[in-house]
Batch of 2 targets.
Target 1
Amino acid sequence: MSTDLMPNRFRPGEVPLPAREAALIARRDAVLGASYRLQYRKPVHFVRGEGMWLYDPDDRAYLDFYNNVPSLGHCHPEVNAAMAEQAARISANTRYLEPRLVDYAERLIDTFPAQLDRVVFTCTGSESNDLALRIARLVSGGEGVIVTSYAYHGTSAAVAAVSPNLGAAVNLSPFVRMVTLPGTDGVADAQAGAFFEAQVRAAIVDLQRRGIGVAALLFDSIFSSDGVWIDPPGFIAGAVEAVREAGGLVIADEVQPGFGRTGAHMWGFERHGIVPDLVTLGKPMGNGFPIGAVVGRHAPMERFGQTARYSNTFAGNTVGIATADAVLTILQRDRILESVMRVSQRLRHGLDAVAAEVPGIRGIRNAGLFFGVDIGLPDSLPSQRRAMALDLVNALRDDGVLISTTSANEDALKIRPPLVCQDEHADLFLARFRAALEKVASAYTPA
Amino acid sequence: MSTDLMPNRFRPGEVPLPAREAALIARRDAVLGASYRLQYRKPVHFVRGEGMWLYDPDDRAYLDFYNNVPSLGHCHPEVNAAMAEQAARISANTRYLEPRLVDYAERLIDTFPAQLDRVVFTCTGSESNDLALRIARLVSGGEGVIVTSYAYHGTSAAVAAVSPNLGAAVNLSPFVRMVTLPGTDGVADAQAGAFFEAQVRAAIVDLQRRGIGVAALLFDSIFSSDGVWIDPPGFIAGAVEAVREAGGLVIADEVQPGFGRTGAHMWGFERHGIVPDLVTLGKPMGNGFPIGAVVGRHAPMERFGQTARYSNTFAGNTVGIATADAVLTILQRDRILESVMRVSQRLRHGLDAVAAEVPGIRGIRNAGLFFGVDIGLPDSLPSQRRAMALDLVNALRDDGVLISTTSANEDALKIRPPLVCQDEHADLFLARFRAALEKVASAYTPA
């Protein structure tokens, strides 16, 4: 595992910076301090966004193949108009009756399997996962949470404590157990389900014999932080069954895969043919407006709602709701999922072609427009693979394309453009990607 | 203590409802379920807001003396214009350089004592308190948190576990200790500081002898959920010193008192002449846009930032920042604090006059535009006082004025209008309040 807290980041002094950016960074460090890490060796400075593009103060354009929050593209005029129109009318909280909240809740629930018929709104994906853990612990009576070995689920105290991705500096809960994905262990597809289920069953036994009990299996169905290990479809079904037998709840963290990222489905868990007990939403829900939700089955949601007094001041306010409503309308009306399928296949074929012709790619995995691309030359050490991935990310940044890294060793590229990515953007990305890979690969090839 | 999760709420069947509202509530219950409680016996239904007023679908106006989130008034056109203008330009995250984020962070820090020189943004007050607890626990090495007996600090798992206000159904952390406020125990002002300090010292001893250690004293400086117990100024100073001696951090939860609510100061802790280690912000910061922050001293903020990888997807995005920047500009430019002082004194005098002439008021406390008014006739039982407060809140609602209840017994009125409340609103409120109190008091007076 990489011990760097964030490999793709700015380190003072590593590369020379223009005076304008150096001055801004000095001011920034003085008030925001160490928590605020900038991406790239040479940080990017943006003042304008539009669709797939971000622009720096000199009006240089960067193709955004990284940001999954503005999934309808930067500064979507229709989304922004809906937000502004509602803000001018009323920003009501949920203690008052307001039809717009109910309308959207119904429309959102309609995109889920019928068993999932309740929603509670939040402001962030972290709040969604935090609330889902509260519900699961209350309903199950257990405390234990099972996650994958490099999972990241958010930033609240309870959620950070079940996010091994945060590294050794952030204490894990004594009640969390980690399980390995079949893909990262090289397990063949035919054995993947049995392998994963066996690990989850072992974790359950350990939690039970220590009196901790099982609250939940919490997973992101495309396992984005583990390196985008998505296949074979359905490999988590046995584990889901095991957790339910033990009285635990199944929580699908859809903050990354949800709202059509995978193209094939609105929700990532659908790929695996399961219906979770709780589903958590965030990032693209409002195309950038802070809004999230927990969608769940009737019984656990009602049990929690009747027992605990839960309120969230900003969550479900009508401005966020109107914004999210516009996002859902556009996703459906513009058939964004179909476009994601088409463009992601084009990107996949293009990346396969690059991999066949240029050295440096060890594997490519994708679910729709979320790609994990393993970097490294044959026989390169983990540290060399990580360095090469980082060089590639920075070469692309210098050529005006934004991506970053992922996986336990941080040697996989994380590529996830806004969902409005079209063929022309895919082709431009592929051309620049090929050029950058050729350059970086030659630098790592022994003369 | 009241055992009702939320006394001022709608209970199906208690009063007849118009068909339009009954139908909307049925739809709402079907998707949002039990977590979503409506205020008032007869819920209010709003479709439009402007300044101090909210309007129902029949265009009936309600004077808002309750909502402390839109502190500049509902649908403030300048705030909304700043939000819309920024949303049309760029919604950048904090991994990229963007001058607006730095500008606002500097302006915000300038409103604090010099020792508080760092800020980390969040999306909600709950996220702010959750993060502050993470920082305090990391820096102190302790786990114990000291709060007041009826404190509410938010809704995440870690924060709900130190919020006794949530009632018996929400488990408290084994690491939290509750201390009583001198005011609720009837302690005279001259002994208040010693009384409070002694309780905090006893809590510290208990936490230490159990090996839990002291992470923080966490308090809202106007003690809003305990019933607005604010006097005498400075009574918390000895407790603050005791916590620091024990290696704990002092966290001022400014979600309610902050941004000028008290009129005398921008921040509530200033009333007590102390400088906290961490300060948490939320509610009015964006006049409704989901934004919060932790402001803190250099050492703990840097220690956390360098140790843990903390990121919050939506927090610090330039749309929220531009919105909060507009709020701060208007607060300062329009001298809102001076207006709060003037109008709150007028309200206080008016309430004192009502109390002198109409039976039913047992006490009045305020810090600026946050009032706690104890309701009850001489010799009435706690349950009668609670019922009378609830009747009064509902009588005012029926007369087009919004307030609610607070305190351990829920027999105090919570009155906190937007900060743009003017003399004319205060006078209108006082007239309707007097009439409602007369009506309710006579119903509770033996014939």
Target 2
Amino acid sequence: MSTFQVVQKPEGKFKIKFLPNNVEIDVFKDGENLLKIAMAAGVHINASCGGIGSCGKCKVKIKGDNYIGGKSPKLEKEEIEEGFRLACLTKVKGPIEVDIPKESQIDSSVFQLDKDFLLSSSKIKHLLPSFSLNPTVFKIYLELDKPNKDDNINDLDRLIRAIKKKHKFEKITATFDVVLKLPYIIRESDWKVNVTLVALEENYKIIDVDPGTINIRNYALAVDIGTTSVSAQLIDLNKCFLNYTGIDEVDISGHESVVGEHSLYNAQVSYGEDVITRIVFSLKGDGLKTLQQAIVKTLNEIIENIINKSNISKDEISFMVVAANTTMTQLFLGVSPKYIREAPYVPTAKTFPLVHAHLLGLNLPNHIYTYTFPTVSSYVGGDIVSGVLATGIYQQREITLFMDIGTNGEIVLGNQDWLVCTSCSAGPAFEGGGIKNGMRASLGAIDHVKINPTNFEPMIMAIGDDSKPIGICGSGLIEIISEMLITGIINQNGKFNRDLNTPRVREGDEGGYEYVLVWAKDSGIGTDIVINEADIDNLMRAKGAIFAGCKTLLDSVGMTFKDLQRVIIAGGFGKFINLERAVEIGLFPEIDFNKFIYVGNSSLLGSRLVSFSKDLMRTAENISNMMTNIELADNVNFMSEFIAATFLPHTDINLFPNTIKKISSIKK
Amino acid sequence: MSTFQVVQKPEGKFKIKFLPNNVEIDVFKDGENLLKIAMAAGVHINASCGGIGSCGKCKVKIKGDNYIGGKSPKLEKEEIEEGFRLACLTKVKGPIEVDIPKESQIDSSVFQLDKDFLLSSSKIKHLLPSFSLNPTVFKIYLELDKPNKDDNINDLDRLIRAIKKKHKFEKITATFDVVLKLPYIIRESDWKVNVTLVALEENYKIIDVDPGTINIRNYALAVDIGTTSVSAQLIDLNKCFLNYTGIDEVDISGHESVVGEHSLYNAQVSYGEDVITRIVFSLKGDGLKTLQQAIVKTLNEIIENIINKSNISKDEISFMVVAANTTMTQLFLGVSPKYIREAPYVPTAKTFPLVHAHLLGLNLPNHIYTYTFPTVSSYVGGDIVSGVLATGIYQQREITLFMDIGTNGEIVLGNQDWLVCTSCSAGPAFEGGGIKNGMRASLGAIDHVKINPTNFEPMIMAIGDDSKPIGICGSGLIEIISEMLITGIINQNGKFNRDLNTPRVREGDEGGYEYVLVWAKDSGIGTDIVINEADIDNLMRAKGAIFAGCKTLLDSVGMTFKDLQRVIIAGGFGKFINLERAVEIGLFPEIDFNKFIYVGNSSLLGSRLVSFSKDLMRTAENISNMMTNIELADNVNFMSEFIAATFLPHTDINLFPNTIKKISSIKK
């Protein structure tokens, strides 16, 4: 008999199968919530509201009778008859099969489309003229003197002496883990070692020691944790360290140094679409733990994917840089975001300590530290600080407006001398939320639209060549509304012209008029794809909030849109927006188009740059301190600007003279 | 059915009972080693050799037949017949009862005797004239401004701002654990908090935050880990911090601040008596882990004892300072001492990083850091640095010789300008090892002896009033040998005068003569207690090594004993030594007795002082760097000095003129 007994994993009471991917899971408890079971099985079902039945997104088709609940006014009568239920309202009593329809699935294929969207070196050089290349975590190869009778100092001091002999580092310490393995490693490797050091503010700390190799490989992970999607890049730090001699010789964008990248939806999406829903979820039971584990799971999957595609081992990674908004930062670290949501909107910290990645649950070696970008306020986070850093606004004389548009619009205004910032809640419209046929920018989403001004017939393009359209994404919405405005289908209030001679404009089921973009026979969902007055209203409020935010920020420093010398559009959504159309609906200001720069995911770019340079880590801190946050929550000026901007393009025609001219000319 | 199954702890195959304390343990494996079972049961059996049957100390009496092995030439025939076996050689096959005889038990009662041996404040003031009182870890009470619309900085910066407002700390950071609990604590305690900070070299780090109390309690643990015994004191840090205004107002010895103390034998003793045996044990299987857990177990017991006697909770402790020799330091931290024993005798580090106590296995709250004193070399450790610090040698003009005598004798020589040090292996004789009736200084040990020079009858005293003598401890040995020398029972070679008219001097069983100190009828072990020529030889070599070490150290700087202005005797053993007798056998030099100072456990004293003052932490580092280690292992001068000193008192009569006079006068 052995001292230990093997405990077998008990079998569940029954099994649940999820289609279309045939995922099976054992269930142990009667009456378990179906959405929870899906999450446990790693099956994603869209759910925007955090599981309270209010969004109606988690529609699934159930085969079998072993469940109760799941019905909701969000489902059509026919759907209920066919077996459709809301997963979040369904309690499972026995084995069933659950079919997840296309519109409830999360589709990651969109990320493949983004892959090539990266700023060129020359463009970044223009944005960010100077910084020193000097990675926070770096490795050096050393051959130690072997100890003898006359030189028998201890192992650690021998190592430190050798480092000091080669480099001008004044103070060097070591982690306890290094001390534990040091005596074995140096002797097994015949006194030739690779040493990994992190440059802290006051000293250098040895965080790892390995048998020496002449070609030292040293990688970092640059990460952007978005509310919706998470992106990471594996960076070859030697690509800059080897070229340390001068800025002109290196690829300053770090573009060449990217040896792998991957993106996934943030698994937290299953618990709510926006930060507020997530914060609310985090306050219930072990919600905080659930959300922390969800983002860690996403990151582990991303890292696994990148590593599997590369010839690099995890041991060769030595640092991880994360940029995220304040709520995502706190959820990633397991710090409750409770007080972010309660007035006076206080985050727990601006600068979080370096944390060992493995302590957060990441499947990474023990020596790897995670650096999170400092935040500014509860709603202007590390992703924006990272974006400001990457785009060099803080170094330039030009007055720049920086906009990162998503469910929250974060806006920064300023130059090398001053920076003000704010955040305005745009709602989920830009990501297809709250829009009848809205969807994220994934396969089958309509993203380009032209409408023939004579017969009002549309020409549409959807993402993916072979897909029938299944919905409209944010950038598509902007184009549709701008086209409808310019062709006179809708007026500047966003209401339909009911006198047009076309079957496409009709009264909808829910009252109000709608425009049919795709007839049922041509759509991938079996019903017409339409846009209605409520949808237009939602988008007008979204773009109105962003525009009013910009205007309020300018007002706060006594400036107008004419003073802007540059407008930087950042973010995953921003890069798909058609500039002209965005101006026409009044999302962007009507100024010289040449002043606009699209930078894509500047948050990820900033992460990458910081992994290259400890000085930039300090710069991030300085930027965060330099940014003055303007709270819009009870700002009277913002409220009146918002009302003025909830119009197409704006109630103040002087702000959009060319657009007004266009509208007038078509109407004639 | 629940998701989890309760797994019952399986019953053992059979039980072993240990007497006299009736401890029972379940055994799962046939043929398990009896010493290992005893260790697992928490039952101590003396074992000096690390379990290889060579020391013969682990003698036990077994009732029952379910075992094999255990016989040894170390046991008398009669003993084997009575059921005595060596535990380390016995393999258990079924239930047995194991009786541990007195001489195999570890007895902690001796520590109670030490309790009152502490240096007075005035004495320490004399030794150590100045240091600033400024604890490394301290607590402050703060009332934070509540956040509002116009002051909504994050929680951490709010806390740091409040600290800076009250104190002139420039750079303040926080641990991740603090960040995690901060938002809850400050709000639950209505923005009144106690903050625990550690003063590091470059900054202050917040390591804990608790609800505020007006009377802040703040304690430290000062620990001395000896090869044989472990002592700890619980220190009230406020006792000095409250009196921060000036050195004259406070109790500089920290004597008053000791609110609890306890000592135990180092549980590692079961795996070998000296550092070399321990190092050898650490290299076998998971020996390192076993030894690390053994010392942690001892410390946990000591801490539990101190806490139980006090009204202080573990949460009120905020720092732990440990002084230990190099091997004990590394074993405590779990760092392999392998290379300490292999030429060129290299420790892993001189200064180990601060380590979280709970990570070492100590039952202490997560925020407590453990500081270990820096070492000098493989055989001059942190306990000696601590002793040099506590006795202020490094601050004084006077040339001082510092001796810490145990199984190793560590010697330091110098003053404020220079310090040289060495370590010489004295062997276990001073702790009763290798002596036929030798034992540690515990209950029943003979520690004082006078011999009547006319009839050679002894007058003895043993430790503990009611105990019959059961052996001779180190200080007793010194007295016996000095008495025998002075009364002419032995000559200067340590050989017996065979012509004396007394039954007490006789030929022993094992060849050579012996002196009977206690007849069987008066002894607690049922046999005569004797001292034989082999014992005397062992002690001569032990004292010879120490004296030769001192001489070699003096030679190395061109000095003689006459140049010494002070001799400090430190260590648990040292304080029991009769000065006059120690000079007579040639252990101590024959110089003015007034130059000798006994300081007791100066290692523990240094620990206590460092817990009071971060400046002293830096001082310890400086002392360690200041100390030049002289290696005696293949030092030719030492070898010839050793031979000259293996004589009573010494071959050079000029070094001991008074002793020679005494010997001559008695002989006449």
